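Anyone up for a design puzzle?
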């Protein structure tokens, strides 16, 4: 495990986690979060998402394969399809979610922030797939580094959001990020299909 692999794999998970969607959600809360509230929500949601991913990294392969009889390539393809729809919405509409889906909840820490916005289908599928290839310890390192960067961005989402609004850059950034998410999703689908073909 070299530094280049760590950086590339962590960046891959960061793309799946998609910090832009969290920044947009937290920076547009009505009423706005105070700095303390923003930090508390960011830390708690990250810890919940990390707990979910730790469980799935450790036991996800067994659960899906032995209990649900689902092969890893099927999970990878399904995660890619779901992730593709998320990216497509961002490209077409300039947002990753409908506001009606995210507003009105008294506490967004667990739902929708921790899951599905942080520990979403693509991240879960990739975490389980990585754990079968690289092992749980390496996968947890990649995921943890990605979550740390995402946490720092969430904590500064008010400042980042104001900066982007000043230059009317929120919409373009979301569309660009959506395109990247779509590309990652397509790669996941191709990887799953390739693995399936190799088993035939």
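Challenge accepted. My sequence:
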């Amino acid at each position: 495990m070299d530094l280049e692999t760590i950086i590339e794999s962590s960046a891959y998970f960061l793309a799946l986690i998609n910090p832009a969607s969290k920044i947009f959600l937290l920076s547009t809360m009505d009423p706005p979060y105070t700095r303390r509230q923003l930090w508390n929500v960011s830390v708690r949601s990250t810890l919940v998402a990390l707990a979910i991913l730790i469980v799935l990294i450790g036991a996800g392969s067994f659960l899906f394969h032995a209990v649900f009889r689902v092969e890893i390539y099927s999970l990878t393809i399904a995660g890619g399809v779901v992730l593709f729809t998320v990216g497509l919405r961002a490209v077409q509409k300039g947002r990753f979610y409908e506001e009606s889906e995210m507003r009105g909840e008294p506490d967004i820490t667990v739902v929708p922030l921790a899951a599905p916005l942080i520990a979403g289908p693509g991240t879960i599928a990739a975490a389980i797939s990585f754990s079968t290839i690289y092992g749980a310890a390496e996968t947890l390192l990649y995921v943890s580094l990605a979550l740390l960067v995402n946490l720092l961005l969430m904590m500064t989402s008010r400042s980042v959001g104001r900066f982007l609004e000043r230059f009317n850059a929120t919409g373009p950034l979301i569309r660009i990020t959506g395109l990247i998410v779509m590309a990652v999703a397509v790669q996941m689908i191709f990887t799953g299909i390739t693995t399936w073909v190799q088993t035939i």
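A detail worth pointing out: The longest helix spans residues 35-67.
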